[in-house]
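Hey L., structure's done. Input below.
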Amino acid sequence: MGVLMKNNQPAVTVCFTNNKGGSGKSTSCANIGYELSAAGKKVLLIDGDMQLNLSLSFFDEEKVLEMAESEKNLYYAIRNKKDLQEYIVATPYKNLDLIPSSLLMSQVEYELFTMMQRELVLKKCLEGIRNSGKYDYILIDAPPTLGTWVINILCASDYVVVPVEASPWGLFGLANMFDFLGGLRDMTEAEIMGVLITKVDERKNYYRQTREILESYREIHVFDSFIHVDASIEWAQDASKPVAVYKKSTRSAAEFKKIAEEMINTL
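Output:
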């Protein structure tokens, strides 16, 4: 049974990360975040990727670029070591807020290089929000890299979700990802919550092969639920809406809901 959230309990912080692009990382973060909020949980999403995909999941391109070009986004918060509470934007959905990203996030590695305790900058900026009692969950979308910024995200997180595409190249580099996480044990207590298999096409054998390989990592949990290939996801992204808002009856909407329920019951 999931942990009952209390106002004086720090928000559970979960990062979505994979060093391989195209894994469905931003899509999973956005839609699971929405489903958690629809279940009555108070959720903050943090767009940590210069591609802005998490922000584009909730706002149209004009609004996202406006936020990205302002000084009220994650890049300036990190650059100036500011409390992230000043950078929160309400989404159109109840219980769901966002800290938007910036195209300047491409420079964040350089900004961090000049700072003391550079691996802990995000953790310190996030501390006020985590302990405010305002949110039950904070979900962070990490970029598809393995560098100082991703280390920052991991140091600020309690748990890690690794989306993996069910394709011939989906598992490429995953061992490097696990080695990278293992090498940070002296810096972060973040645990791998699980691997989420995405873009499943059951007409092909890739899903079965992917799950078998993942389950061979005995210490790694694989989520029971998975996400099928679904054209509604792309249409929802084009409309800047969660898939359950765009088309509630679609299969992927039900799958994201199951993943959110699995997350709640895991903690």
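Residues 251-266 form the longest helix (16 residues). The chain is about 40% helix and 15% strand.

-- N.
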